[in-house]
Amino acid sequence: MATKERKLISFDWAIKKILRSKANFEVLEGFLSELLFEEIKIMEILESESNKETKEDKFNRVDIKVKNSNEEIILIEIQYDRELDYLQRMLYATSKTIAEHIQEGKAYSEITRVIFCAILYFNFGEGDDYVYKGTTSFIGMHNNSVLKLNPKQAQLYKTDCVDKTFPQYYLIRVNNFNNLAKDSLDEWIYFLKNEEIKDDFKAKGLAKAKEVLDYLKCSETEKREYEKFKESLHDQASMYESTYVVGKMDGMKEGMRKES
Known about the structure:
The protein is an alpha/beta fold. It has two domains: 11-216, no CATH class; 218-260. Helices cover 38% and strands 14% of the residues. It is built from seven helices and six strands; from the N terminus they run ααβββαββαβααα. Strand 2 (61-68) and strand 3 (73-79) form a beta hairpin. Helix 2 packs antiparallel against helix 6. The longest helix is centred in the last third of the chain and has 40 residues, at 220-259. 24% of the residues are buried. Residues 1-5 and 54-59 have low confidence and may be disordered.
């Protein structure tokens, strides 16, 4: 007889309330290691939008900014609301981070590399995959050759790949995931979508997540705050449906009426 999976706190609430503790860095390190295909060690949590909670605090976006052992800054952003200009938001966030973290008078070679990870719960773009990676490359217009760094540049930047000197972007389109976990990254995405971690999942960080995100271990106050947060997400989804979706349907009806 199959056992019922434990109820876990969602990843967005965990980022707001639980995973900022150094004792729980293992969870974020596991997620980032599986996504980036390299061992990630978080050194510190940096100031970000969701560090500052106000009465006007929005529930539709959660973000966290960390620095890893390679002195790279990684932004993780969870977004629920539909944004047509989300690509520009990503560009703005990475550009702002770069500007904030270069000291006055320092050479451009000391610009901090930024990695942006977006976990999206709305239908973004068109495509049949659920994880996309974006990099910057320079391709020859006449022979399609890829521009590389010369030996001195490679020594300066500690890499021979041009794309590794620019921001890197990862888009996880959670709604496109079909719930079939074929590898360790899929196990993480399964958790992001279903708030469940199956007993046979082996991805890095998930064992720790199962331990620290157990809903039953929360105090009554924490449970009330969490339920309020989840209720707010449902309210925003309903608001979106009653404005955008219904408005689109009304527009289609009006168009059909004019054509008839």
